[in-house]
Amino acid sequence: MLKGLALTPPIVGRISIGKVVEKDGLRLPEKDDEFTITTQVQNREGWVNHPLDKSLRKTPETKLRSIPIRLMFDDPDLSLRANYTLFDRKTGRQMCVGNGETCKRLTGEGLKTLPCPTPDACELAIGGHCKPYGRLNVRIGDEDELGSFIFRTTGYNSIRTLSTRLKYFHAVSGGLLSTLPLELRLRGKSTSQSYRTPIYYVDLTVRAGMTLPAAVAAAIAQRDEWKALGFDQAALDEASRKGFAAGVFEESAEEVEGVLEEFYPEPTNTSDTGQQPAKAATGLADKLADKVLATSSAGGGTTRGAP
């Protein structure tokens, strides 16, 4: 087996609540108020929709705001991996991944394990390019029981809500996350930072029309049936755990370009993009950021690093 290669859950499609659009010659992310389920194939118009995207809508005009899913694993930390992540925009490589306590960082001397003070307190994270980054793998339908659809997000609301729900469902079901009948649900809220306009995030609930006790009973029944057939969920969780640990970082080189485009867009001076215009380095934070970049370029070390 290849060393240093993370063995991640096989992906058969994507779940998103936004898309990348072209404005003034630039490709920029644009948020949406519904889910879109796509394949892993792109054409000139963007990602090609998966057949499930159409079948889950009551009519072609219906907005898709809930998706019935099952989780692949009983361990909540296997289904949702979330950490602070910083990418090198020039090479597309992940430079630093941390959890708020420690981080793995690529330096001029190789990979190092260092303290992670979170982006707010790390000078290498100045500029906002180190963000919380979450990946959730789920199953939709029964077409491929070991294949998954991946939802990627850098939103605090989605990461915090999904993390909490997974811990709660794991507790009340006795650890039977993989057999619980669940659904992803899109929710909206307004805040002062959003100027009272709705922002959307992803929640995890039991299936519509089911109570929590009924969902737990269904999970127990499903687990008993699978056990009788010889299905070993604990072994699957362990194989996945070892697979994630086999690599330095989770994303492969071919996936990084799409992640950067969707979640780490370059700032522009175009006022209608929703981005803040670039500004001169006048404050201490800006000067530190410029110093880090200048030092990195001159010394041949990391272009950026962050927890």
From TrEMBL:
Q: Which UniProt keywords apply?
A: Hydrolase
Q: What is the protein's given name?
A: Hydrolase or metal-binding protein
Q: Which GO terms describe its molecular function?
A: hydrolase activity
Write down the Pfam families for this protein, in alphabetical order: Gp3-like
Q: Which organism is it from?
A: Polaromonas aquatica
Q: Its domain of life?
A: Bacteria
